[in-house]
Structures are given as structure tokens and as C-alpha cells.
Amino acid sequence: MSVFMASQVPSITKRERLRKLKTRTVVQTRYVVNATDPRTGQRKQFFFERLRDAQQKRNELCDRGAFGTPGPQLSAQVAPELPARALAPLSDSRPLSETPPISPASDASPAGPTIGDVVTHWLDGLDAGLKPSTRHYYRQMARYILKPTPIGSTLQRRIWARDGFPEGVAMLEALAPRPLAELTTADIRIWHKNLAAQVGQHTANATKKVLGSALAQAAEDLHVRVPVMPRKLGKGRVRDKKKILTPEQVGLLIAAARSDAERGLYYAFPFLTGVRPSEQLGLLWKDIDFGRGVISIRRMQELDGTLSDITKTPAGNRELPMSPLLAEMLADWRRRCPGGHEPEQRVFSTLGTATSQRHVVRGLPLTYANFRTSYWRPAFERLGLPYVSPHSARHTFISTLQANGIEVGLVAKLAGHSNATVTLAHYTQAVRGGEVAVLSLEKAYAASSSGIVRQDP
Description:
The protein has about 450 residues and is mainly alpha-helical. The chain has three domains: about 1-80, no CATH class; about 95-220, no CATH class; about 245-390, Intergrase catalytic core (hpI Integrase, Chain A). The chain is about 40% helix and about 10% strand. A hairpin with a 4-residue loop joins strand 1 (about 10-20) and strand 2. Mean pLDDT is about 80; it is low at about 1-5 and about 70-110.
């Protein structure tokens, strides 16, 4: 990767990048004229496909006298690349989010911003539309960049985080103090390898994504060159496919739910809609339009029972059609819902129990832990069905639609996926046996050959 020359004299560098097309990968070559205005310190770049066009532009800039005097003429060979010079460090007196764009480096601060600066800058600029828990997750991952990581077991690190680090604990060096200008792809690869050995491949990969996002934003906002993120560093933990129910088992569960007027809708709803558990528990009566026959997913519930007016992804904000069966069950439940059926009341609230004074109150927000323990699991135990998690009902919903020939684009829309690839890669599973596929294939062959007349030789 090319870098821009620290001198105020315009320079030319050659940039080669791999571009993936649909059928092949090509090498794209560009010649970049790098110049810095000595009066304002503003950095300029001009891109050309041919070297002589870049040389002509460089000479034009030099002739104006605004960008210094020309250096040695470059004929057929481009000047060797020099180490990148980063931008000046941010002021410590203000948060990064309030700091104006950084000017080019001066002699007083040749090192430029550190990696900690750009990561903090990225964290401060996180979209306010993100869920608080999502922002918290990003900050948790960023700590492996901003702070040294103690070498020890998971339990030891938790104890040390609570009680403080004892003397003599070995630490993995944090990337934060390093000047951004000195960071290389090889440095990131070594750091990732060491981090994965301590905290696991999954956490190391997630932290690398945070670093990559911070570097990409630094390249856009601060106009600095950043190293290419290393690839093929290994996948995180391989998750087993979630267990799902067969259509026959779901049919048995739905039949039981119809006769269970008190709790049936609680465990039938995700199989009939494919919603996430957080979306089901965050549903309000104003989100259900019986006239139009649709359910609007506009919010979700956090683990502590509070509502968030943000769905998991923008595609999660969607409308779901109600089947006649679901509309009937919802209408019946609306008349008996313990929390009432006012627009702002929750559809799925606590029902209370006569065996516990602690949970006797009805109509309160139903947390996920309570839902899973008191409403979901007992239904499977009573019916003798194999236990699956509430989120597995979503997998069952998607897989059954796919097995019945519903196009993947529509399934992805109903599931709240912005990309059908997610639907296919992570949610779709076989709900029928292989013999069904073989019989279908044989039937197709038979239909194709029925019109062929055999001719004797």
C-alpha cells in the first residue's frame, strides 16, 4: 500500500489494489500525487491511471509555487515510498467527539495520533440510534485495544477486574499507546494471535472488527493512511445448528395452545410469527391492527424488562401478516389479558402464580428469564416434546416456510433480515427427511420422461 510523503514537495506514489469482480480478480493500478499546502497544512491527493498524467499534475502544482518546488524528475520509475507521517495528536482537554479535524503533523508532534485516539474517536461517534446494550458491547471489545490484557484464566481475569491486578501479573501490551503511523498489518496479525490465545478466537475476532471500524473512520475523518486489516485469521467458535421441531411436533404444540386459554398464546406465538423473543415480549396492543390483519414490530425488550424503541437491525422494523388462527387467538386473549388491552399495555405480561407470594402480581413486564422458565419450558414438559429454546421457534418458522416453497426473499423480509444470505446461512434447516427429496427427484424425472417415445433400434 502506498503512503504519502512527509515533505511539502509533491510526490508520486504507485498504488496497487486487488478488485474482486463477479468472475475474476483484477489488479487496479493508480498513481497518486500527494501534496501538502504549507500555508494551511491541508493535504491533497490526485489520482491518475497513467504515470505521465500524474507527473504532469505534479509539475503543474510546483509551477504554481503553492506546493513547494519540484524534486528530481521521475521518468519511468516512481520514487520509492517513504514512511507515512500521521496527523497531530488530539487535544487531551476535550473529548474526541468535540475535537475539530486534526491538522497535519508539525515538528512538535511528529508521532501523530495514537491508536487509542482513533478508537476513542470512533466510540464517541457511535450512532445514537444503536441500542445501549450494543454500544456497551462495542466498548467492552474496545477495552482489549485500549488497556493491557492480563495473562491468565478467564476466572482470574474476572477476579482481577473486580479486585485489582496483583503485582507481577504478565500483561499483553495494549495497542492504544502506539502511534497510528507506525502500525502495520503484521503488527495487527501478531496482536490478534496473542489476544486469541488469552481470551479466545471469537473475542479476538470481535475486537479486530472494532479496530477495523475505528481505522476506517480515521481514514475518512482524519485523512490518514491506515494499514490493511489482516485476513484469514481463523474463525471463532463453531456454533451447532439450533434444534428445531418438525411440522408435526409444531402442530401438536399449536393444538395444545388453542385449548390452553391461559398460557397457550405465549408459547404458540413465536412459531406462528417467527419473531425474536425480545420482539414478542416488547409487543404492545397498539402494535396489533386487527382491521388490517398485521402486527407491527417497532421495538424490543431488554433483558431487564425495559422497552427499547429500536429493533435489533433496521430491517427488524417490519409488519407481519396475521394468519386467521393467530388473529383468533389474539382477539380471545385481548379480552382476558391481565394487563388490560389499552394501546400502551403489553400483550405478554406476567400472569402471577398462586404458589409464590413474590410473583402473585399480574400484568407486570415479563422478563425473558421468567418467560423461559415459567411459560415456555413447562409447555414442552407437559406435552412430552423435545425442548427447544424460544429462539429455536424462529428457526423452525423460517425453515418450515422454506421447505414449503416460499421464496427466500419473502422469508427474509418476514424474519427481519436485511440480507437473504443470513436467512439461508444461519436459519434454514431441513425439516423433512432425505427420502422426500429422492421421491421428489424421481417424480420430476418421471414427468420429464413421460413424453419420450421409445424407439427400437
